[in-house]
Amino acid sequence: MQRDEIEKILPHRDGMLLIDEVEVSEGIAHAKKTIRPEEWFLQGHFPGDPIVPGVILCEIMAQSTCALLGEEAGGNISTYLTGLDKARFRNPVRPGDTLEITASITRSKDNFYFAKGEGRVGGKLCVSAEYSFVIERHSEKCDVF
Predict the structure, then answer these.
(1) What is the pLDDT of residue 49?
(2) Interacting residues of 71 by C-beta distance below 8 A, sequence separation 6+
(3) Taking a C-beta distance cutoff of 8 angstroms, is the pair 40, 75 a contact?
(4) Which residues are catalytic?
(5) Residue 36 burial (CB < 10 Å; 0-12/13-18/19+)?
(6) 8 A C-beta contact, residue 118 and residue 66
(7) Dist CA 60 CA 122 (whole Å)
(8) What pLDDT, in 10s, does the model give residues 84-103?
(9) pTM (predicted TM-score)
(10) How far is CA 46 from the centre of its chain?
(11) Among candidates 22, 33, 21, 39, which has minimal Cα distance to 98?
């Protein structure tokens, strides 16, 4: 999926849609995000040595996971991150890097989902976490929050 297809699933837009592409295979989301030097979250983090903040890395993983909802989502949902556990930051992610995410849903109950993900640059583990989110279904198409 490219950006236009991702936007059919996720309500995120300008500045907050943090994945460039995603594919789903055998229940695993494989996403990519190339970090551009002009990204808003790099401004001031840190001058002369910019790195992607950990919270942004976690958001990228969470957005990647939502692709697993696929056609079922159909733009009629809002997703809300409800928990973050066992987050580990192993190596910094810098401008020019392409972060490759693998994410999967480990279980669900009603509209709550539990997931895990990892992010790597050049095969080197940079971030991993377990997280949960809830989805709210809308009766009509919801393009943005």
Answers:
(1) 96
(2) none
(3) no
(4) 45
(5) exposed
(6) no
(7) 17
(8) 999 999 999 999 999 999 99
(9) 0.89
(10) 22
(11) 33
